[in-house]
Amino acid sequence: MNNRTALVTGASRGIGSAIARVFREAGANVLAPSRAEMDMSDTASIERYIGAVNGPIDILVNNAGINILAGLDEIEQDGLNEMLQVNLVAPILLTKLVAEKMKANRYGRIVNISSIWSVVAKERRLAYAASKSAMSGVTRTLALELGKYGVLVNAIAPGYVNTELTSQNNSPEQIKQISSSIPLERLAEPEEIAEMAAFLCSRRNSYMTGQVLVVDGGYVCR
User: Fold this and answer.
1) CA atoms within 13 A on the CB side of 74
2) Cβ neighbours around 161 below 10 Å, total
3) Domains recognised in the chain with CATH numbers
4) For residue range 132-186, what is the model confidence (pLDDT) as tens digits?
5) Alpha-carbon distance 212 to 159, whole Å?
6) d(CA 188, CA 210)
7) What would the DSSP string read from start to end of 128-190?
8) Catalytic machinery residues
């Protein structure tokens, strides 16, 4: 990734932080805006940030996301709108802004962080599953639209990852039960997801596009 500029959203912790670190180690110039610098819930904030970036962005990782647990009887309009904005609408807008220079340079790598909940289901993941399932569809569509410009678009659908968000949404006992249900008998580490993203965004990937890669230790194979 030498001499490439990569924008990684949601890089303050978890998977995003690991991706930013691995990309830097691979030689990329990493842009990792904080929420104060680029608020994914605010369209104007996204436009301002991208407008202030000097030079092209060669690599985009749409990682920022929120997961508010709520079933059908619990979900409220505001929460639904917030999750769709941050997890779906903002990445589409960001991709539109960044892809213009990628198309002009006839080079680009885009990775969307999806989720296994776009493949299998779990209670109280209604809005989250909807947003991530939609991002998988967006990935395939953009691969078709941008392929002729040399821009490759893929998605990673992680399973359970050892992050702060997983700890927030699951008790220690639940995490123990989850680990026993995974064929590899453990959660993924953020660095393992980051390494997959690094391959997809590197020069080593010259032909894979439009794919949603499940990285879950075999969880969906149960």
Assistant:
1) 9
2) 21
3) 5-160+189-215 (3.40.50.720)
4) 999 999 999 999 999 999 999 999 999 999 998 898 888 999 999 999 999 999 9
5) 13
6) 23
7) HHHHHHHHHHHHHHHHHHHGGGTEEEEEEEE-SBSSHHHHHHS-HHHHHHHHHHSTTSSPBPH
8) 128
